Amino acid sequence: MSKRFAGPEIERLIQLLAKVPGLGPRSARRAALHLIKKKEQLLGPLTVAMGDALDKVRICSTCGNVDTTDPCTICTDPRRDDTTIIVVEDVSDLWALERTGAMNARYHVLGGTLSPLDGVGPDDLNIRSLVDRVAKGGVSELILAVNATVEGQTTAHYITDQLDGLGVKVTRLAHGVPVGGELDYLDEGTLSAALKARTAF
Amino acid sequence: MSKRFAGPEIERLIQLLAKVPGLGPRSARRAALHLIKKKEQLLGPLTVAMGDALDKVRICSTCGNVDTTDPCTICTDPRRDDTTIIVVEDVSDLWALERTGAMNARYHVLGGTLSPLDGVGPDDLNIRSLVDRVAKGGVSELILAVNATVEGQTTAHYITDQLDGLGVKVTRLAHGVPVGGELDYLDEGTLSAALKARTAF
Ligand SMILES: [Zn+2]
Ligand SMILES: [Zn+2]
């Protein structure tokens, strides 16, 4: 803004909203004005919800998921199948798979993929903790639900090697996932079908 | 969400973010996850900024603008021209006009347009306070920067009638504004040109 026409608190609110994915500078202004106009109905409740998230959100020490409890809602759910772990790159992939409702398993969030060029090695991902979970026993199948990218597949191969001798069946998503595509952008039907038609790795 | 896979605080955050203009249900999930991952850099500062806005934002008792002070930043700015008032329907129009940098005047925010079918009459808008401002003297020009819609033009005519005999020149934006268009969606250049080529009403 070339000239000051509102208090610095409002300009700061617009600046920060513009950093939220899905909002640009223009929609950040509209969002700010809408929030200000709906103080009681939206700005207040959203501020409380964000404060709650800020206070309570933590990373699950078992699976790497983010949640407001540790262990997370999924790790502590007694109705889930302990014998199957779905391995994902990111929490957004876990959310996408959960929305399909196709599986009732546990998860393990890697936190990325192996990428030597970017300096991301095995110790930068939650791979050791995954191998430890499997080594403890009780897991019969590991579904590698990583992106169908070079990095995703390289990571899948690395994990499979690490699990050698532990007697766990390793599967991957069926080829319903478009090559080069990212899980988080797919519709629930495609993801659901890919899970059901998973093949031996 | 068919099945609970995260704490209720996270689901509530997603629900509320989905009500922000520019974000739908899907982008609200992405936004929530991004905020959670950027706790220190974004979620924290944004929560503070929203809390500040919640505490401090009020409606200017002089012009109807929203700001963190009353009177607002524009009404208290000593460098602005007291002789010209730009009349707008909404704060978003005031922001759009300010971004052009074309004028250095005062404003008056009506808070809508006359719309008998929707039960919006003169007393539901900040028209009386506008007439009072003009009646106090010192204002030589009133620029009716209302939308080029039927309601906007009806409101402009009504205001002009109310100002009869007060000796103020009433102008409107030049016909650079597309018929039926809303100010807030126009680019700065068009708005700027429309202001400079304003005509007698
Ligand atoms: Zn967990
Ligand atoms: Zn004001």
TrEMBL record, chains A, B:
GO molecular function, one term: DNA binding
PROSITE patterns in alphabetical order: RECR (PS01300), TOPRIM (PS50880)
Gene Ontology biological process terms from the UniProt entry: DNA recombination; DNA repair
Membrane-spanning ranges: none
Domain of life: Bacteria
Keyword Zinc annotated: yes
Keywords: DNA damage, DNA recombination, DNA repair, Metal-binding, Zinc, Zinc-finger
InterPro entries attached to this UniProt entry: DNA_Rcmb_RecR (IPR000093), Rcmb_RecR (IPR023627), Rcmb_RecR_Znf (IPR015967), TOPRIM_dom (IPR006171), TOPRIM_RecR (IPR034137)
Start and end residues, zinc fingers (C4-type): 60-75
Domain annotation Toprim: ranges: 83-178
Protein role: May play a role in DNA repair. It seems to be involved in an RecBC-independent recombinational process of DNA repair. It may act with RecF and RecO.
The family this protein is said to belong to: Belongs to the RecR family.
HAMAP family: RecR
Protein name, entry field: Recombination protein RecR
